[in-house]
Amino acid sequence: MTTRYGLRRTPEEYERLRAQARAWEDATARLLDRVGLSEGMSCLDAGCGPGETMRLMAERVGPAGRVLGLDADGALGEQAQEMLRDAGHGQCSVTAYEIGGETLPGGTYDLVFARLLLFHLPERTEVLARLWEAVAPGGTLLVQDYDLSVVSTVPESLVVEGFTGLMTRIFEGIGCDVRVGTRLPALFAEAGIGTPDGTEIAGMVATLGPARMMLEAVVRGALPAAVARGVVEPEGAERVLARLAQEAAEHPDRPLLPPLLVGAWKTKAPTP
User: Fold this and answer.
1) Surface-to-core class of residue 21, CB atoms within 10 Å of its CB (0-12 exposed, 13-18 middle, 19+ buried)
2) Buried/exposed 242-251: b ≥16 CB within 10 Å, e otherwise
3) pLDDT at residue 170 tops 50
4) Other residues' Cβ atoms within 10 Å of the Cβ of residue 129
5) DSSP class per residue in 68-100
6) Per-residue pLDDT averaged across 165-187, rounded?
7) Whole-prediction pTM value?
8) CA distances (Å), 130 to each of 104, 115, 134, 189, in order?
9) What is the C-alpha radius of gyration for the chain, rounded to an integer number of angstroms?
């Protein structure tokens, strides 16, 4: 099984992933503390990307802990490991690994974490089941993922609605689930995990001018794959992006609601 990750693997995309991770750092840190991540624990970050969440884990588990990151992109994983080692987090390691429905490496962990992973996967239920298998007794599975359907401005804008429609068409066309965050409790049930112990929604209010560049970068990262699959025509997509740029130039301070990041977690019963 493969993740069929549909975005480009370029320096520009890597930088976008780092910016995205920084934007959600507080939301993720809050949940790491809420589930009780602490000194000496072992962690798995499934789909670790640039390693920013691994850094948050390493700060909490300390030198006696262990943090393993898995990512299909070996080049990005190497960069993540170098960043973490340069920051003094020798307890961290990253392995190139295509996450699918098979058993995950490294045994079991006190925390198994995945952020913006299921969004990209066709085998979401199977992968959730494997993530749960990797949780040690008494450990916790913590998942955060997007709901893109909410992207909008106040007042409403036909241009932004057109962009949201394009973004949805592109991501659904390459096999993503744009509302997977909201579906997490249902997916936990389908995977045999049970009802989450808790859920939390993280969001922010941005403005159209500054946010437009990030929104466009997300679409451009997936556009080649969508064009190759016949999901969209490049000329039509460029027209939508040009209208968005014009709208942002004319109304840079218009309030914009970006995607929501939904978190769900479940602690496994300890061994009797």
Assistant:
1) buried
2) ebbeebbeeb
3) yes
4) 17
5) EEEES-HHHHHHHHHHHHHTT-TTEEEEE---S
6) 96
7) 0.94
8) 7, 15, 6, 14
9) 19
CA–CA separation, 40 vs 37, rounded Å?
9
Tokens 């769900």 belong to residue = 264
- Could you give phi then psi for residue 97, rounded to 5 degrees? -155, 130
Model confidence over 201-210: pLDDT tens digits? 999 999 999 9
Helix (H, G, I), strand (E, B) or coil at 45: strand
Residue type, 26: D
Task: Please give the Cα distance from 70 to 3 (Å, whole number).
Answer: 12
Helix (H) or strand (E) holding 39: none
Q: Please provide the size of the chain in residues.
A: 272
Question: Any idea which residue has 């190759």 for tokens?
Answer: 228
Dihedral class, residue 235 (left if φ above 0, else alpha if ψ from -120 to 50, else beta): alpha
Residue ranges and CATH numbers for the domains of the chain are 11-267 (3.40.50.150)
Among candidate residues 109, 127, 263, 260, the one with its CA nearest the CA of residue 185 = 263
Residue 272 confidence class, pLDDT cut points 50, 70, 90: confident
- pLDDT value at position 3? 40
When pLDDT is averaged across residues 146-163 and rounded to a whole number, the result is 96
Q: Tokens 């000194």 sit at which residue?
A: 39
